[in-house]
Write a structure and sequence with these properties.
With 265 residues, the protein is an alpha/beta fold. The chain has a single domain, classed as Alpha-Beta Complex (Protein-Tyrosine Phosphatase, Chain A), CATH 3.90.190. The strands form two sheets. A five-stranded mixed beta sheet has the order 1-3-6-4-5, with helices on one face. A two-stranded antiparallel sheet has the order 2-7. Strand 4, helix 2 and strand 5 form a beta-alpha-beta unit. The protein is globular and about 50 Å long.
Length: 265
């Protein structure tokens, strides 16, 4: 059903195992790049999946340029401006990269960017978890690339579900497909020319478009440093202990499908 979508940075996070052996349920939470990448065949597949909610983490400027026009009347659209991405910030960030287009500076900018993301997401975390608790699923969480803002949002959700950092990083690093596709289509040149006025070196491009685990870990480290734990982070976002328990019960299965099949036999 999702042959075309599978070629994008689009996937179901179901099947990931928590440290207590529970499994994230399939068919409930999907992560993706944004609608600028969707064409007709993607629209058909998205419609067939029956999304009931979409969490759009992009800025207003990004939404105007590429709206979620594929959503039907039965799909609630949550516009959750998480303006911490380079595409959303512009200004000084881009100027810094223009002045010093080195891999070192690109890495500094991206680390700084990721460290800001947990605080930026906090204002929206109750809306996202509320939609999940009320079973507005399947739900799609996306930004533009599906890598940075979406990567942090999904990582924090998986942390709350008890998934270990190694498995969170393994899922995050699958988002390298976005940069791979940019290279295949040649859109790196046009995209960076539009933003910078020139194409940076391959080292800079690789830093900006790649899914680098240390960037994501920097965001998770900020949560531990500034809030103390993932539960306290969600608590600060207005998600109570009762709600966190309900969320885990919605998204986690305590037995694998194989075990369920054995029980049925």
């Amino acid at each position: 059903m999702t042959v075309a979508l599978s070629k994008l940075n689009f996937r179901d996070i179901g099947g990931i195992r928590a440290v207590n052996g529970a499994i994230v349920r399939t068919g409930l939470v999907y992560r993706s790049e944004g609608p600028a990448s969707f064409v007709g065949e993607h629209h058909a597949e998205l419609g067939a999946l029956g999304f009931r909610a979409v969490c759009d983490l992009r800025s207003e400027v990004e939404r105007v340029e590429a709206p979620n026009g594929w959503c039907g009347p039965g799909c609630r659209l949550l516009n959750l401006d998480m303006n911490t991405d380079l595409r959303a910030q512009g200004g000084d960030i881009w100027d810094s990269l223009r002045r010093e287009p080195t891999a070192h500076n690109a890495r500094r900018v991206m680390m700084e960017n990721y460290r800001m993301m947990p605080a930026a997401l906090l204002a929206h975390i109750k809306l996202i978890t509320g939609a999940l608790i009320e079973r507005e699923t399947p739900i799609l969480i996306h930004c533009t690339a599906g890598k940075d803002r979406t990567g942090v949002a999904i990582a924090l959700l998986l942390c709350l579900l008890g998934v270990g950092h190694d498995d969170i990083l393994a899922d995050y690093q699958k988002s390298d497909v976005f940069g791979d596709n940019m290279r295949i289509t040649g859109s790196i040149e046009s995209g960076f020319t539009k933003a910078f006025g020139f194409v940076p070196s391959e080292a800079v491009v690789a830093t900006l478009v790649g899914a680098h685990g240390d960037f994501l870990l920097a965001a998770l480290d900020v949560v531990a440093r500034d809030w103390g734990s993932i539960d306290l982070y969600f608590d600060a976002g207005g998600v109570s202990g009762v709600e966190r328990t309900r969320l885990r019960s919605v998204l986690l299965s305590l037995r694998t499908e194989h075990q369920l099949g054995e029980t049925a036999l």
